[in-house]
Every structure is written in structure tokens, then in C-alpha cells.
Specification:
The structure is a single chain. By secondary structure, the chain is mainly β. It has no helices and 5 strands. The protein is globular.
Length: about 80
């Protein structure tokens, strides 16, 4: 089995995310998977705050530091890293 790494490589790990208004994710993500369609409010790893992605379902290819509870109504959110 090949060990593919680097910025263009797919995620190697995943974890369930419980949105929270003050806690950052640990680890930060390479992307999010959203199973239940809705809005997702995040802070990006680059420092953009309170960005709202509307009507998300599927893969959101954004590096995320925080997923907010307030402003997020999407469900079944999984962090990919």
C-alpha cells in the first residue's frame, strides 16, 4: 500500500464534529464532510472568521479551525485530515 502525503493527497483520517462556539477543532481539518444539508459557519485555518457556507451537503474542501454551533444547522459533520 502506498503512503501518499502532501497537500494534494486525500485525507487519511476522519472524526465526528460537534459544533461549538468557542472551541477550536483538534486537529484542524483539510476538509469537512457534511451528511445532512444545511448551513455551516466556520473559522478557517488561515484566519477568516465566521464564514457561512449556505446549503452545504457533501465535501466542503476548506481547512477549518472551528465549526460554530450558532449559525450551523447542517448535521452529520465529519472532519477530514
Amino acid at each position: 500500500m502506498s503512503n501518499v502525503t502532501g497537500q494534494d493527497a486525500p485525507a487519511r483520517n476522519a472524526f465526528a464534529i460537534t459544533p461549538h462556539d468557542t472551541n477550536n477543532l483538534d486537529p484542524f481539518t483539510r476538509a469537512l464532510y457534511v451528511g445532512g444539508q444545511g448551513d455551516v459557519k466556520v473559522d478557517t485555518v488561515a484566519g477568516d472568521s465566521a464564514v457561512v457556507f449556505v446549503g452545504v451537503v457533501g465535501i466542503l474542501p476548506v481547512q477549518v479551525a472551528r465549526v460554530y454551533a450558532t449559525g450551523t444547522d447542517a448535521t452529520d459533520i465529519v472532519g477530514l485530515y
